[in-house]
Amino acid sequence: MISKIMYKRMLDHLNTAILLFNRHLVLTYINTSGEILFADSAHHLVGQSADELFKTSDPALLNNLKQSLLMAEPLVDRALTLSRVPNNVTTNFSATPLLVKEKVHEILVEFQQVDTHIRISKEEQLLTQQNTARLLVRGLAHEIKNPLGGLRGAAQLLDLELSDPELKEYTQIIINESDRLQALLDKMLGPNKLPNKKIINIHEVLERVRQLVQVESSKSLQFKSDYDPSIPDIYADKDQLIQAILNIARNAVQAMDGKGSIMFKTRIYRHMNIGRKRYKLAVKCDIIDSGPGIDANMMTQIFYPMITGRAEGTGLGLSIAQALITQHNGLIECESQPGKTVFSVFLPMGVAHD
């Protein structure tokens, strides 16, 4: 005979949100996926009525639940908006009455988040685009480096043959500009060494970045933090993470024009999909600025090398950041609108599982 604890363990491993209401429509149980969907803990949610849980959501949610209770029949509905979390989500809903002596004793509710499938598809497309762009850039950079090395070598030989100091100035210009282009190509190629991973605290990384950009920035620019202290240490390269998040934060500072606010925020995510891999736990680090936002035409290109919205920019900061995070099996996403731009860094914890 399977115990209640075993049932709970099985439900906690499901990808769909499972809620159990008593006949008075008071929540008596919610699984782990449900906690993620509602962005709240079972300790806080259990005991709340359906009216409280769904008061700001699509009215059809509560109506369907009450109808299922009244008619003692299962009910299914699709594409309903649940607004319990900071950002509204679209879900498919099903309610199943559990009968005892032909009377409804409890109602089992299942939510399947439609947005998740859209997000995974978008994420896979983003990773494919970035990998394709990276391969093209690497090929182009290698093709340029060969003749560039020849030019520099020829300039050095010519410099040795010349005795006129004024003519030597020209050869030095060629050599210096060749070195500058070489450095630019190296940046375009991205990280050239594997991460040196150790056990680190993600908040030490974020605080280091916050201190660095705060020193570089205008005093009228505000820096805030909202950290989840329960996040455990992660296995990562501290220097690489600092560089990646610093590139993102500096972009935010440059977009702010010396005023506004930048928030560093962390949260833990459970059962997180990154690409085609699924992780039991992942850390989400948000860098949120109150700047003008990113132009819609730029949004699909911001992680490509040499793409920038600033005349003085190189367009390499975000590309390098994404490459560094990719080496940690992570991902960077961005959402932007005037007054709020959010760069989210997802870092998996532990190994992927099916």
Summarize the structure in words:
- The structure is a single chain.
- This protein is 44% helix and 29% strand.
- The protein has 354 residues and is an alpha+beta fold.
- It folds into three domains: 4-117, 2-Layer Sandwich (Beta-Lactamase), CATH 3.30.450.20; 121-189; 198-353, Histidine kinase-like ATPase, C-terminal domain (Heat Shock Protein 90, 2-Layer Sandwich).
- The strands form three sheets. The chain has a five-stranded antiparallel sheet with strand order 2-1-5-4-3. A five-stranded mixed sheet has the order 7-9-10-12-11, with helices on both faces. Strands 6-8 form a two-stranded antiparallel sheet.
- Helix 8 (202-216) runs parallel beside helix 9 (238-256) and helix 9 (238-256) runs antiparallel to helix 10 (317-326).
- It starts with a helix and ends with a strand.
- The relative contact order is 0.09.
Into which percent range does the helicity of residues fall? 40-55%
Query: What's the number of extended β-strand segments?
Result: 12
The CATH homologous superfamily of the largest domain is named Histidine kinase-like ATPase, C-terminal domain
Unreliable runs, pLDDT <50, ≥5 residues?
Answer: none
Average per-residue pLDDT, rounded, comes to 82
Q: Based on the coordinates given, report the CATH architecture of the largest domain.
A: 2-Layer Sandwich
| Residues in β-strands, percent | 25-35%
The CATH topology annotation of the largest domain reads as Heat Shock Protein 90
Assign the CATH class of the largest domain.
Alpha Beta
Radius of gyration: 27 Å
Count of folded domains: 3
Shape: elongated
